[in-house]
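Consider what follows.

. . .
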Amino acid sequence: YRFRVMPKVKKERTRVRANPMAGDAKRQGFTFNKTFGQHILKNPLIVKTIVERAAIKPTDVVLEIGPGTGNLTQKLLEAAKKVIALEYDPRMIAELHKRFQGTDLIHKLKIIQGDAIKLKFPYFDVCVANVPYQISSPLTLKLLSHRPFFRCAVLMFQREFAMRLVAKPGEPQFCRLSLNVQLLAKVAHLMKVSRNSFRPPPKVESSVVRIEPRNPPPPVNFTEWDGMVRLCFSRKNKTLGGIFRNKNVIKLLQKNYDVFCALNNTEKKSKDVKELVVKALEETKLREKRSAKLTQDDFLELLGAFNSQGIHFK
């Protein structure tokens, strides 16, 4: 018998179409700097959703922090009247110029080089940013102290940080940051974003959060509020009675009390501030409560009780 040898059939390779938003680092001639938190968002669906959730109007001025190679910038330019892009890396700025020079969008784009934490923000209606993770906290608080008020900010954060922003009393992530941000703004978690949506992919997952400043702001001295909250969350699972009877805390409050009375020419209610602290805690019935489970209203009541006893924070 003769056996026929069947010819080999070549398998056809399936061509994978390149993502036009991928921003190939080698093609662009540089490597991304992880020190600057450079992880370029390459997923067009995520970009589209961020712009949609920002609800940008044709008359809006948009502040974009960390535009990178311009994937998100392009969609913002198409939706807004003007985009002000703050970028630290001059190589990224060169890429932005290269991308938009000669297009109909270039007249709507203004690029400012510098550190977003140190620069004074210009006027804007909406802020959109893929935030470098190492500046998440200072940037959030800087945005919330910005005047005049902006309408909203849609920001990409590390998942863990985002969960702290939206955490409620009693949840493990609830902390001083949660309380401070929620005092000054309405915060909502919009969506989770996979690490594979970035180039290069970060080591952690991300989330997008929407922040709307409360306008007008709550009638509270934020410096004093934060001073009290810092003490409360120094040991968030310890009772308030235990925290405020600590020797070092009493020493600090005694100093603040003496200075306040001297500056305001006020007669002291007691020479021993510890006595006033106990009165404030008993008045609010919060002595045996723990910071991790207290609401914003509880903290506001506590601050009011301390102030009524002449105790202030800084």
Remarks:
- The first strand starts at residue 40 and ends at 41.
